[in-house]
Amino acid sequence: MEIAAAFQSEDRLVLSYELFPPKTPAGVLGLYDHVQQLMQFRPSFITCTYGAGGSTRQKTLEVIAEVRRRFSVTVASHLTLVGSTIDDLRQYLTEAQVAGIDGIVALRGDPPKDSPEFMVTPGGFQYANQLVELIHDEFPQLSVLVAGYPETHREAPSAEVDLDNLKRKVDAGAHGIVTQLFFDNEDFLRFRDRCWARGIQVPIVPGILPPLGSDQLNRLGQLCGAKLPIALLERMNQKADADWQTAVGIEFAAQQVRELIEAGVPGVHFYVLNQSRATMEVLSQLGFERQAVAS
Ligand SMILES: Cc1cc2nc3c(=O)[nH]c(=O)nc-3n(C[C@H](O)[C@H](O)[C@H](O)COP(=O)(O)OP(=O)(O)OC[C@H]3O[C@@H](n4cnc5c(N)ncnc54)[C@H](O)[C@@H]3O)c2cc1C
User: pLDDT digit string (tens) for 51-105?
Assistant: First the structure.
């Protein structure tokens, strides 16, 4: 329960990074080099995503266990319930626990690309709160984080209903909420106020993606429905120069995180996209100190 404890006890900001399992062996080796760099900022924990429908099941576990072994850092595995029976989920949780994984980011997952809506697998769950309950009841040693949506989940009929559903996950035993990426801090702060008004008391951690260029921003807008920061896009588009656009994006993310820290967030979760440069530059601009990491 180191992740849950970190939010209780750390007097510093709880810094975390999110990785995804690379597709190739070369990608895996490159990833460890980037994590080595990122370790200089002493993250409290690192997570690894779980591919749609369990497509990266073994890879996720391998990668995150290896990150833990190499860097002696606390780790969490994402786990989605889509396409799995409850027994499959139990099996994964058992393996994760044996591998020394401290926490689970418990998720429903998206429907497969060829299916317009989410279908319940026979013998499986429908919503993430059920997975949280399973972990709470049967794997109480694991920390549990859940997803929150400052701009509301795309399937929810309203922000209010979505927040009621978020509360179900917290009531089922989640120790913290990590949000979907967003570019307007007002969306996050409004979401946090509404969570508080509902009596949600666990840490609410903003998910931050330093935007690297206008093409990437447009893709993200389509992929996760995030409202695009128009002023930032206009500024990036002043030059068709990748380095310029990246520098503008990093400056934007640093300012976004600075404001969130001033607003009292308990932690920041970086979507590092298996790279180190952008996140390291953001942290450096914010004055985070580096520490040497043994190789
Ligand atoms: C931090 C973070 C990490 C992520 N990592 C991954 C990953 O590794 N792999 C991956 O495939 N996807 C990942 N996702 C995406 C996520 O799987 C999708 O957004 C998915 O559509 C919803 O997952 P959820 O866990 O929020 O679902 P849920 O909390 O189950 O919510 C799904 C929808 O159902 C509604 N709902 C929830 N509970 C109930 C209920 N009891 N009754 C009625 N309605 C309900 C909600 O309002 C929402 O609209 C991540 C998202 C975030 C924010």
Answer: 977 778 999 999 999 999 999 999 999 999 999 999 999 999 999 999 999 999 9
Q: For residue 35, give the H/E element and its range.
A: helix 25-38
Cβ of 211 below 6 Å from ligand 1 = no
Question: Which residues are the active-site residues?
Answer: 18
Rounded (10°) angle between helices 25-38 and 277-285: 10
Of residues 92, 104, 22, the one with CA closest to residue 63: 22
165 close to ligand 1 (CB < 6 Angstrom):
yes
Tell me the pLDDT tens digit for each residue of 179-201. 999 999 999 999 999 999 999 99
Cα angle for residues 193, 272, 41 (degrees, 5° grid): 90
Ligand 1: which residue has its CA nearest to atom 44? Answer: 165
From the CA of 60, give the closest atom in ligand 1.
8
Nearest by Cα to 82 from 47, 48, 124: 124
Cβ of 108 less than 6 Å from ligand 1: yes
CA distance 233 to 249: 9
Q: H-helix or E-strand containing 18? A: strand 14-19
117: left (phi over 0), alpha (psi -120 to 50) or beta: beta
Q: How far is the CA of 244 from the centre of ligand 1 (A)?
A: 35
pLDDT, tens digit (0-9, with 9 covering 90-100), for 27-37: 999 999 999 99
pTM of structure:
0.97
CB of 110 closer than 6 A to ligand 1? yes
Nearest CA to ligand 1 atom 16: 109
- State how far the Cα of 47 lies from the Cα of 143, in Å rounded to an integer: 12
Give me the domains of the chain, ranges plus CATH numbers. Answer: 2-285 (3.20.20.220)
Alpha helices in 126-211 (DSSP H): 128-138, 159-171, 185-197
- Residue 7 has a pLDDT of 92
